[in-house]
Amino acid sequence: MGRLEELRINAYLSEIARGYGNNSFIADKLFPTINSEKEKIDIFEFNKEAFQIYDTERAIRANSNVISPKGFNKHSATLKEHDLAYPIDYREEEEAEKIKLQVHATNVVTQGLYLKHEKQCADLAQNPENYALSNKSSLSGTSKFSDDNSDPVGVIDDAKDQVCKQIGQDPNTLVMGQEVWSALKRNVALKKMIASTSNKTITLDLLKEFFEIENIYIGRTIFSDEQNKFQRVWGNNIILAFVPNLTSRTQYDPAYGYTVRKKDALQIDEYEKEGKKVKYIRGTDIYTPFLVGPDAGYLISNVV
Q1: 3-48+72-301 adopts what CATH topology?
Q2: Domain limits of the chain?
C-alpha cells in the first residue's frame, strides 16, 4: 500500500468517526463542545454578569451607563488525550472486504471513545459534591416518584426556582436516567393530568408541557463494569441545567458545562505490529469535560 493510499483511507475513516452518531449518547446535551486550537486552555467559571439587569436609560448629554465588571474566575487546564485501537490480523483482512472491516473497527473504537466521554460527563453531573446545598436534593419516602403520593411537577418546580434564584434564568434542559423515566410514565399524579385529554400514555412531549422544560433527554447508555456486569451510565437521578441555545459557543458564554475539545482532534490512523501480521485501527481524541457553572444546574438524587 502506498503512503498516499494509506492517508486517503485514514482520512475517510476519520470522517466516518466524526460523523458517528448514537442516540443513546446524551452527554453533549449538558456538556456541549467548544473547540480549542491548543491543548492548554483557560477555563472560565460561570459569571452572572450576562443575566444582570442594568440601568440603561441615559439623559441628554449625560454620561454613559458603564458596567462595573465582576471579572472572571478562571483556572488553567490541559486537555487529556484518549485513544483506543482495534486489531485486524492479516488473515482476517484477506477473508473480509478490506474497507468494510476497517469501517467496523472504526465504529468500535469510536463507540469506545464516545462511551468514555459519556461516562465522564455523567459522573460530573451526578456527583452531589459538585453542587452547593441550595442546588441539590435527595428524595425519600412519599416524595419519590415511584410513590403514589408523589408530586413530580412540584419537585421540578422547586428545583427550577432554585436555579432561577442563582442565575436569573430557568433551566432549559432536563436529563434523567432510564429508571426515572420508567417511574414517571407510571406516576399517578401525572396520569391524572392526562385523564381529561385524548392521550393514553405519558410521552416526552407531555412531560415538557408538565415541567415547562424545553429539552428533556433520557440517559439509556449502558456500560460493563470491572466485574463484567452491565450498569447504567445515568442512574436514579435528574439533572436540570441551563444550556445556552447557541449556534457557536465560546468559553465566555454562561452555561452549566462544556466539553473543550482540541479542534479536529478526532482522528483515525493505523499502525502495524507482530511482524506486520496485525494491523491496528486507532482512534484518538483530545478533550476534557468541565462543570463550569454548577449554580446553573440542580441535582435531584434517589428519585425512585
Answers
A1: phage-related protein like fold (3.90.1690)
A2: 3-48+72-301
For the beta sheet containing 297-301, the strands, ordered from the edge strand earlier in sequence to the opposite edge, are 136-138, 297-301, 237-241, 173-177, 215-219
Place of cell 452527554: 27
Between CA 294 and CA 300, with CA 295 as vertex, the angle to 5 degrees is: 70
Grid cell digits, residue 231: 450498569
Length of the chain: 304
Cα–chain center distance at 89: 36
| H helix runs in 63-149, sequence order | 90-95, 98-125
What would the pLDDT profile of 225-253 be if each residue is shown by its tens digit? 788 888 899 999 999 999 988 665 555 56
Nearest residue to 127 (alpha-carbon basis) of 265, 257, 259: 257
The type of residue at 240 is L
Q: Taking a C-beta distance cutoff of 8 angstroms, is the pair 240, 160 a contact?
A: yes
Question: 55-71, pLDDT tens digit by residue?
Answer: 788 888 888 888 776 66
Distance CA 243, CA 175 (A): 12
Range from 130-139, 218-227, 249-258, 274-283 carrying the lowest mean pLDDT: 249-258
DSSP per-residue string spanning 189-221: HHHHHTTTSS--S--HHHHHHHHT-SEEEEE--
Closest by Cα among 163, 134, 139 to 150: 139
